[in-house]
Amino acid sequence: MSGPHIPRAHPPLCLTVAGSDSGGGAGIQADLKTMLALGVHGMSVVTAVTAQNSLGVKGVWELPAEAVKGQYRAVVDDIGVQAVKTGMLSSAALVETVAELLAATAAPAVVDPVGVSKHGDALLAATALDAVRGELLPRATVATPNLDEVTQLTGVVVETEDDMRRAADAVLAYGPAWALIKGGHLAAHGDEAVDLLTDGTDERWLRAPRHDNRHTHGTGCTLASAIAAGLAKGRTVPEAVTEAKEYVTGAIAAGFALGAGIGPVDHAWRWR
User: Fold this and answer.
1) Is the full-model pTM beyond 0.85?
2) Which residues are catalytic?
3) Is 120 left (phi over 0), alpha (psi -120 to 50) or beta?
4) How many angstroms separate the CA atoms of 82 and 105, rounded?
5) Whole-number Å distance between alpha carbons of 31 and 16
6) What are the residue ranges spanned by the domains of the chain?
7) pLDDT tier, 191 (very low <50, low <70, confident <90, very high otherwise)
8) pLDDT at residue 171, rounded to an integer
9) Is the four-CA dihedral 213, 145, 232, 236 of positive or negative sign?
């Protein structure tokens, strides 16, 4: 005879606000896989639907701001959330809507200011840049631009570690609590993937071996959602970023070929 049912405590709650990748390598698909792998319950707000595969983005259909707001409120008002990650917000209207939602949410936010896809396809309208700078970045607990996005947002061209410091200062000037400048494409470090995390006072360099693997689709989404998962579990920003860096380094090393182009990182690498 069994005893009374005792409800099991739920895992930490993490929400991704991003676009869908039909190929499964980036966007909300990568975010939810990452959150599962790191032990949090992932939830999603779809901002756009893309038709994409290993060769590139074939089409983008942005959802109305009302649909984005409706999804967000449905999740947060009923289930709650302990960390939010934002990704592809293709227009000023969506950036402004999500910034307003984050301002009313008592949870840390990881902002990945997605500008272009892994294949070079534009995913952020030029007219949305001012809204990202003025409304979204000030809501960020951590902003995670790569080198191309740094230049797009600040005009700083990064070629050295000193440039990464200048880039971080420029990003922090827009208001996020922390900036993570992702230097994975820094040519000066051929055998190392170097990132800089700073809040303007506490400077931390994260270094990992650079793996000779071309199948890296979804790296930025994976890293940002891994940081959000850590924050949802109560980690400090430096702890969450360090753990996320270790996770994504393994996922890149295990990335696999799909289709005829660039394959995804392996979100389940720890289980194989």
Assistant:
1) yes
2) 182, 216, 218-221
3) left
4) 9
5) 7
6) 13-266
7) confident
8) 98
9) positive
- Helix (H) or strand (E) run with residue 56 in it: strand 56-62
Which are the contacts of 107, defined by CB distance < 8 A and separation ≥ 6?
81, 82, 83, 84
DSSP summary character for residue 217? B
pLDDT above 60 for 2: no
The predicted pLDDT at position 1 comes to 44
Could you tell me the two tokens for 233?
């579990």
∠ CA 100-105-108 to the nearest 5 degrees? 110
pLDDT of residue 124: 64
Q: Where are the alpha helices (DSSP H) in 48-128?
A: 65-78, 92-103
Answer CATH for 13-266 from 3.40.50.720, 3.90.1170.20, 1.25.40.10, 3.40.1190.20 = 3.40.1190.20
Four-point Cα dihedral 160, 167, 205, 115, nearest 10: -100
